[in-house]
Amino acid sequence: MRIYTKTGDKGETGIFGGDRVPKDDLRVETNGILDEANSYIGYLRALLGEDHAWQENLYKIQRDMMLMMSHIATPANCKKENPKPHPEQGPAFCEQWIEELLVELGEEKDFFLLPGGDQISAQCHLARTKVRTAERRLVTLSKVEPKPAYIQAYLNRLSDLFFVMARVQMKEAGIKPEKFALLRKK
């Protein structure tokens, strides 16, 4: 199997249903950002190691992202139905995991913190911000071509989840989070 097809050499790519669209099409751009977010999650998984408790859930999220990307790439007027399943339970999955992580976090409920900590918590923040970027692109795309509502909700919950994961990681690593303040006390 060849990895290159040469069909995109002129700035177009194929989408579900067989249509070809410019590579800067909103569907393609949104999926490109989701692909970046998925790569950030993959890197986070590599940092965690295979036996980490978060691996299974992050794997599920990565698979769900691929499914969502498939549905984002499907034009509304496509005559062919996309056979891939919809991960509609994704927002509830994220909410449940967030609640579990908040128990680990305990009373530490500050939400205006500077991103950072160690490599794992910083990577959680990178994933969070890339998911937020994808969410904004999806909002733009949805104004032109509506997409299933669960995708927007899933992305919104994912960014919250990665924030909480960063907080939990910092707590477990014994790293004090830096609170956001307009002026830093000396």
CATH class: Mainly Alpha
Q: Main beta sheet, described?
A: 2 strands, antiparallel
The helical percent reads 55-70%
For the residues shown, what is the average pLDDT? 87
Q: How would you describe the shape?
A: elongated
Low-pLDDT stretches are none
Q: Give the N-to-C terminal Cα separation.
A: 61 Å
Q: What is the tally of beta strands?
A: 2
* Helix-strand makeup class: mainly alpha
- Per DSSP, the total helix count is 5
* String of helices and strands: EEHHHHH
Number of domains: 1
Report on this model:
- By secondary structure, the protein is mainly alpha-helical.
- The chain has 5 helices and 2 strands, in the order ββααααα.
- It has a two-stranded antiparallel sheet.
- Helix 1 (26-48) runs antiparallel to helix 4.
- The chain is elongated.
- The termini are far apart.
Short structural summary:
By secondary structure, the chain is mainly alpha-helical. The chain has helices at 26-48, 55-72, 90-105, 119-144, 149-173, and strands at residues 12-14, 20-22.
How are the SSEs ordered, and which strands pair?
Blueprint: E1 12-14, E2 20-22, H1 26-48, H2 55-72, H3 90-105, H4 119-144, H5 149-173
Antiparallel strand pairs: 1-2
Helix pairs in contact: 1-2, 1-4, 3-5, 4-5
